[in-house]
């Protein structure tokens, strides 16, 4: 049973370590698939080997739908990856996940957006993951030069990726260390399951002639045997668990199980390091135990732990990180130094906690019977009670440090857009190929969608002093009076009016960017090779100055505002239109109805959801990875704590049965178990908070941020750690009650 408990504990830790070694390869495979279907390099001229491809991406209930419209220009046009033949006009090929979604009840809301006949399936080589929602649809109306349309000769041409900035790279390194160190701590604790009973068994071997060196070899062999079984269990969990990679992952698309495979070198390192660590930990733990033929000397009062060497890891870690403080933001951090410093600081928790618990419990006074039972148990064998708490303390310390680092840098990666979500929640962009005459129809179509309260359209373009290569320019916004009031403070407005926007307050120039009677060209050409049909226009003399107002997206406009009849008719064809949409918050599908209405217009409209805060993609990926990794570590913590608790209760089965037989109430024994767990946990969490705050302060100074803590988050992290321990303790009460039965006194 002890070997099995050790194997299960080691197996859980090994499985998580193996998954960690497989993540880089899985992400590389996903990145490769993304590169394969990319179209960054365009073809200059149409030919038999070119393809017109247009963006048709969408969103369905926070899930990205990656869509492309295709029109081959010749018989040698390149096929998209995973597609066997081009879909004709009105046809589409879809990914298996999108096909399943369209066939489901939920997919009925998405179907109007994809009014194509399904004629095929996109293969895995064209997907990022098994849950990737992808389609390619045939379209015969696209032309070269249209907005959101590319003319290409092939797929897979990608520019070099931008390097990670030093702060984000530091964040990612700390995330990996914080997630993996608790795993290593738990593996080290698992190999010491049942150490008390093992020592008594080794004493019997001394009685029949074994010397001390032999007992140490036997103990190391037992630990090694359980660890090897644990490696087999870890491998089984890994190969079984990777089959669920498509359902659990950092990315919404999931990962293909075939992409989650062992890294030969990292996997071999784990398989070799864990058995070696098991033997080393066992031999190190036996240094303080003297096994004699008639018993184990540890039953006497253990010597008091020394504190001087236990603070060395913490001081060394601080010494490694201190030189990195106040480093220039554009300078990369020494990764070895960062990893070493963070690891030593976290390991310092495991070194200090046994001394702290022993120091505290030796000074605890009397109390209830349950309290006395718990305190006496801790005074005799505090090390056994501390072992499972070490992992919790390390995890909480790391989580607090990470949260502090997130608090310090999140303002750099979370930008307030200034969008006023009370005025509009969506923005629909129209490409330049949409004729101005269709805009009223499109606006009406969107406004009539279910859940839409209001839809207003505005048009914009440039004004230049010359038809080509203007030396001075300003912007022009065209809309009716109701819509213009969304971008400027208008006292009065009638059709035919023109307004000149004053510059924003606080700038050097506060007057309007244009003057009444000034001559301009609407939509001038900035490129000698691009076609341009600029229209001459003179600002009316009756134009008045107005102050700007941020539009619903947060943009403050400048230049000239005009109602449609104030411009020449030909100028309307050069405008680009956007529509702000206000939806009913009570209608949870209002956004989907707007997207459907935009798709049903037949134009390549781009519906966008307005957000008040925009998060950097890489920062969001790291944050989501931390969430997934933290969940896995918490599951490991809970499982390992439960196994450890069962092991301790099994060791005390006869003692518990004897106490009950002598009249001790079961309620008293249950409370003693709770107290025995609560005291080390409370001390461990206090030490974790102090270490986490110190590490968080150092990390914030390393990225040149003022030291600031989110105390609510610190309390939440500490509470989660305490809740895990409390939950495991409550779950272990039923086995405790079974062990209190008189059957536990039987022996042979």
Overview of this protein structure:
With 748 residues, the chain is α+β, with helices and mostly antiparallel strands. 46% of the residues lie in helices and 13% in strands. It has 18 helices and 21 strands. Strands 11, 12, 13, 14, 15, 16, 17, 18, 19 and 20 form a 10-stranded mixed sheet that branches. Strands 1, 2, 3, 4, 5, 6 and 7 form a 7-stranded mixed sheet that branches. A hairpin with a 2-residue loop joins β2 and β3. The longest helix has 37 residues, at 666-702. The chain is elongated, with a radius of gyration of 34 Å. The mean pLDDT is 83.
Short description:
By secondary structure, this protein is of the alpha+beta class.
Write the layout of secondary structure elements.
Layout: H1 2-36, E1 51-55, E2 58-60, E3 63-72, E4 91-94, H2 96-103, E5 117-121, E6 133-138, E7 149-152, H3 166-190, H4 195-207, H5 212-241, H6 264-285, E8 291-292, E9 295-296, H7 312-321, H8 335-361, H9 369-380, H10 382-413, E10 414-416, E11 426-429, H11 439-447, E12 452-464, E13 473-478, H12 481-484, E14 498-501, E15 519-522, E16 535-538, E17 544-546, E18 560-562, E19 576-583, H13 590-600, E20 606-609, E21 613-615, H14 617-651, H15 653-661, H16 666-702, H17 711-731, H18 733-739
Parallel strand pairs: 3-6, 4-5, 13-18, 14-17
Antiparallel strand pairs: 1-3, 1-7, 2-3, 4-6, 8-9, 10-21, 11-19, 11-20, 12-13, 12-15, 12-19, 14-18, 15-16
Termini separation comes to 18 Å
Class by helix and strand content?
A: alpha+beta
Number of helices: 18
What is the 3D shape?
Answer: elongated
Major sheet: size, sense and barrel closure? 10 strands, mixed
Radius of gyration: 34 Å
Number of strands: 21
Estimate the helix proportion, in percent: 40-55%
Low-confidence runs of at least 5 consecutive residues: none
On the 0-100 scale, what is the average pLDDT? 83
Q: How big a fraction of the residues is strand?
A: 5-15%
């Amino acid at each position: 049973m002890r070997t099995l408990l050790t194997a299960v504990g080691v197996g859980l830790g090994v499985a998580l370590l193996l998954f960690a070694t497989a993540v880089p390869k899985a992400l590389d495979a996903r990145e490769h698939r993304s590169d394969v279907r990319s179209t960054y390099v365009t073809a200059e001229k149409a030919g038999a080997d070119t393809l017109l491809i247009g963006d048709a991406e969408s969103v369905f209930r926070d899930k990205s739908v990656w869509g492309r419209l295709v029109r081959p220009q010749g018989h040698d046009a390149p096929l998209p990856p995973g597609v066997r033949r081009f879909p004709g006009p009105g046809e589409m090929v879809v990914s298996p996940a999108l096909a399943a979604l369209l066939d489901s009840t939920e997919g009925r809301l998405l179907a109007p957006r994809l009014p194509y006949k399904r004629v095929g399936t996109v293969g895995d080589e064209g997907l990022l993951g098994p849950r990737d929602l992808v389609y390619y649809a045939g379209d015969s109306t696209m032309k070269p030069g249209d907005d959101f349309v590319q003319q290409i000769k092939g797929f897979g041409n990608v520019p070099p990726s931008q390097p990670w900035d030093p702060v984000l790279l530091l964040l990612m390194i700390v995330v990996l260390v914080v997630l993996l160190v608790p795993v290593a701590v738990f593996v080290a604790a698992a190999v010491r399951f049942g150490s008390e009973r093992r020592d008594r068994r080794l004493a019997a071997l001394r009685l029949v002639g074994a010397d001390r060196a032999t007992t140490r070899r036997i103990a190391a062999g037992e630990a090694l045997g359980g660890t090897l079984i644990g490696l087999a269990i870890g491998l089984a969990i890994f190969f079984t668990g990777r089959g669920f990679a498509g359902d659990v992952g950092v990315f919404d698309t999931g990962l293909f199980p075939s992409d989650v495979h062992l890294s030969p070198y990292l996997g071999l390192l784990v398989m070799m390091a864990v058995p070696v660590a098991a033997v080393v930990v066992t031999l190190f733990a036996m240094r303080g135990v003297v096994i004699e033929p008639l018993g184990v000397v540890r039953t006497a009062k253990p010597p008091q732990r020394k504190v001087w060497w236990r603070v060395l890891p913490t001081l060394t870690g601080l010494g490694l990180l201190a030189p990195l403080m106040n480093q220039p933001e554009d300078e990369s951090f020494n990764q070895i130094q960062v990893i070493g410093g963070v690891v030593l600081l976290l390991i310092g928790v495991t070194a200090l906690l046994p001394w702290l618990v022993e120091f505290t419990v030796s000074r605890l006074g009397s109390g209830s019977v349950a309290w006395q039972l718990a305190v006496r148990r801790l005074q005799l064998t505090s090390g056994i009670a501390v072992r499972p708490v070490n992992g919790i303390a390390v995890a909480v310390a790391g989580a607090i440090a990470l949260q502090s680092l997130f608090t310090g840098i999140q303002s750099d990666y979370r930008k307030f857009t200034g969008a006023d979500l009370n005025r509009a929640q969506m923005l629909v962009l129209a490409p330049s190929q949409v004729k101005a005459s269709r805009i009223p129809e499109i606006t009406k179509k969107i406004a009539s969608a279910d859940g839409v309260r209001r839809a207003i359209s505005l048009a914009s373009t440039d004004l230049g002093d010359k038809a080509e290569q203007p030396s001075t320019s300003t912007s022009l916004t065209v809309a009716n009076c109701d819509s213009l009031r969304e971008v400027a403070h208008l006292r009065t407005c009638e059709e035919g009016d023109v307004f000149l926007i004053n510059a924003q307050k606080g700038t050097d120039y506060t007057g309007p960017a244009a003057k009444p009677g000034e001559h301009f060209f609407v939509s001038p050409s900035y490129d000698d090779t691009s076609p341009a049909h600029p229209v001459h226009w003179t600002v009316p003399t009756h134009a008045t100055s107005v102050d700007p107002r941020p539009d619903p997206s947060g943009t403050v406009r400048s230049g000239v505002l005009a109602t449609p009849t104030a411009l020449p008719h030909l100028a309307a064809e050069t405008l680009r239109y956007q529509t702000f949409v206000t939806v009913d918050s009570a209608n949870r599908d209002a956004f989907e109805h707007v997207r459907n209405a935009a798709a049903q217009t037949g134009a390549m409209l781009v519906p966008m959801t307005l957000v008040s805060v925009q998060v950097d993609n890489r920062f969001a990926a790291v944050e989501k990875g931390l969430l997934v990794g933290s969940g896995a570590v918490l599951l490991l913590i809970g499982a390992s704590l439960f196994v450890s608790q069962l092991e301790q209760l099994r060791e005390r089965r006869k003692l518990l049965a004897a106490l009950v037989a002598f009249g001790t109430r079961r309620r008293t024994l249950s409370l003693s178990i709770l107290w025995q767990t609560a005291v080390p946990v409370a001390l461990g969490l206090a030490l974790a908070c102090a270490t986490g705050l110190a590490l968080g302060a150092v990390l914030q100074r390393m990225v040149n941020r003022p030291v600031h803590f989110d105390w609510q988050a610190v309390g939440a992290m500490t509470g989660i750690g305490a809740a895990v321990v409390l939950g495991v303790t409550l779950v272990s009460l039923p086995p405790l009650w079974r062990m209190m039965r008189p059957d536990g006194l039987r022996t042979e």
